[in-house]
Every structure is written in structure tokens, then in C-alpha cells.
Amino acid sequence: MTTAEDEKIDDKYRKIKVLGKGNFGQVFLAEEISTKKKVAIKVVDTTRFKNEDQRRHAENEKEICKLLTTEIHHQHIVHVDQVKVENKCIYFILEYVEGGELYERIKLEGKIEESQAKVWFRELISAVAYIHKHGIVHRDLKPENVLLDKLDSIRLCDFGFGKVFDASKLLDTYCGSPFYAAPEMVTATPYRGPPVDMWSCGVILYAMLTGQLPFHCDTMPELFKKISLAHYSEPNSLSEEALSLIKCLLCRNPKRRITAEGVLKHAWLLDNNNKKMHRKTFSGIHHSLSFINYNSGKQPYYNISPSPTSTLPSPILSVGDDELASYSNTPDTSNQRPSKATRFLLHALNKKSQVAPSREKSRDINSGKGNKTLLVTAVRIKRFFSTTFVQRRLTTT
């Protein structure tokens, strides 16, 4: 007798339309034939993987989604019905969330009023706090991976760069979208998972409230330099409490960056008053956060530029492998200079532009002679860029 687990995907579901495309497959809107229930099916074709990193990310996503089908459930995380491997493809059968991406809502409204942003951000942070509590880090938090359901509530999705972490170890996989990447990501520094997610949440909050990104430049070296120094402008249109929370999230030192639990106790989320305080902004031009479609599918990317002629896609960073440790919730009071390794990285970025060297060349460096510290740093930089600037992955919308 054939069980529901053994039933073939094509026999159980009728595909309706393509919702999105990526490097390794597609996301379909489908209907369960027996119940007429609509679902989203994310299909990852494992034969398209080009390296072990891509295979490892898929295995991590499969592990997390299996947990979401059984042990881990949260009202603000997309529910996973089933994970199935069939014909060298991984199928993720997901709850279909009808309201679309937070990304699209920001695009439509220009920016989100603080009263509404409080509701959505509280829901997002409650989901992030939940996964952190259960030993999962997302590592690709951005408005495209935050959905709105038919009741206008937040649903966190897409664990393609997620990881079940060990709190006693550091991670060294550098992944996600550069505009949302934390300083420890862009400087190729071994990092603890949860603080990386909290930085990304800070960028999301800034984008929601202003319709702009806090870090925007014409080139990747300039972008990474701004992120590594946490240089952004404070809009004078926001309340004092909102600016305070953004500052706690966009803290350069991950040990002093606010935690998800800390955010839920912050005055901005607890206080319903929007007291506006005019503050002097840092020098610099506000560049609009504009939204355009990448290629033919519904795969938007950010075009962040001071002029309408300059475009900058939102690539994916991905290399290395992982480990993690503990972190505190102390406010940032440091104005330290970047570390020697960071300064070396920024110097290399400014000279090298955006060409990604191969892993083979990185390994060749190890066989040469010279200063060991310099060689190790050079290897890490090359690894960091080895798979950067690839096409945007598929989403689960």
C-alpha cells in the first residue's frame, strides 16, 4: 500500500504557475489534488551544483526544513509541510503565503509608517528570536525573504543559507546579500551566527522606515568599507526611539550588538508614542532605494546609485564552512580603528575591484614563502570572493 510519504510529487500536486526561478530550480504555485489546498513547492535540482559549498547549503536547508515540519513551529515562520528527495531533486512543500514580499510593500508605499513598521518588525523579531533559541541562524534576512500573509502578518521564509549552529563554535561561511551583510561578513572574520542576523534586521528596519538602504555605494569595495565602519546617515524624520534601535542593531562590534530578545524589550517596540527628534545627519547623499526586475523572472534586485544610469545588482556571497560562540547585549561605545586584517582587506578591495579568483589559486598561495599572517589573510580574501557575484537564488514566495 502506498503511503502519503511514498506518493510521487507529480501524482500528489498539480502545478499551476511558476512563482520564481533561481540557479538551482524553481518555485511553483501548486494545488494538492486530493484536497484542492494551494501550496508553494520549491524545487532544488542537485545536478546543477558546481561545488561542495552549494551542496552543503542545500543540505543545511533540508535539515532546517525537516525541523520545521516536526519540532519547530511559529506563527511568523512559513510552515513546511514536507521535504522530499526525488529524481535528484529536493522538494520543499511549503505553506502558500498570498500577501507577497515585504520588499514589494516597501516598493509600493515608498516607506512604512512607524506605527505599522512596529507591528511588522515585532513579528519579524519574534520569529528570529525563536529560531535563535532553537539553534538556527538564517544568514539571509532581507525584505525579499519576509512575506506578508492575507491577514497582513509577517512570515519569515527561505532558509537556503540557514544553519543549525553549535554555540561553542564560530562560523566562517560568508553568505547572503552584501547590502544586508554584517561587518564580520564583509571582512571575512569568523563570526557568531545570531549577531549577523541582528545586523540584517537593522538594515531591514532602516529600509522599512526610510525606503532607502543605510549602506549604498557605486562599487563593492566602497560598500564593504562603509559596512565595516558602520557609516550611515541618521534620518531626522524618525523618532528618537527608532534611531536608538537602529543604532543598537547596526553596531559594528557583534559582541555589543543587541540580541533579538533585547529588541523585543526596546522602548521603540514598547512605546506607542512616535516622538520625533530632529537630529543632524552624517555627511553624505541619500540614495533612493529603487526596485527593478532582474532578467525575465520575478527576481528583483536593488539598484542603488546616485544617478539613474548606474546599476548595482544584489549578488550572493558564499564560501567556506562554519563554527560559533556566545554574545552579549552591551551598547556600543567604541570608536576603534579597523583591525590590521580589516585594513589589509579594504586596501586589497580598493586595488582589486570585483574579480573573483579561483579556489585553486588560493591553494597555490599556501605553497609560497613569506609572512604567514599575510598569506593566511590573502587566502581568506580570495575564498571570500571565490563565489561572489552570482545570480540571485530562488525564493519561497
TrEMBL record:
Keyword Nucleotide-binding found: yes
Keyword tags: ATP-binding, Kinase, Nucleotide-binding, Serine/threonine-protein kinase, Transferase
Signal sequence bounds: none
Keyword Transferase among record annotations: yes
GO CC term, one of those recorded: cytoplasm
A GO BP entry: intracellular signal transduction
MF GO annotations: ATP binding; protein serine/threonine kinase activity
InterPro entries: Kinase-like_dom_sf, Prot_kinase_dom, Protein_kinase_ATP_BS, Ser/Thr_kinase_AS
Pfam families linked: Pkinase
Residues annotated for ATP binding in this entry: K42
UniProt domain Protein kinase: residue ranges: 13-269
The family this protein is said to belong to: Belongs to the protein kinase superfamily. CAMK Ser/Thr protein kinase family. NIM1 subfamily.
Protein name: Protein kinase domain-containing protein
Organism: Parasitella parasitica
Taxonomic path: Eukaryota, Fungi, Fungi incertae sedis, Mucoromycota, Mucoromycotina
Gene: PARPA_01378.1 scaffold 1359
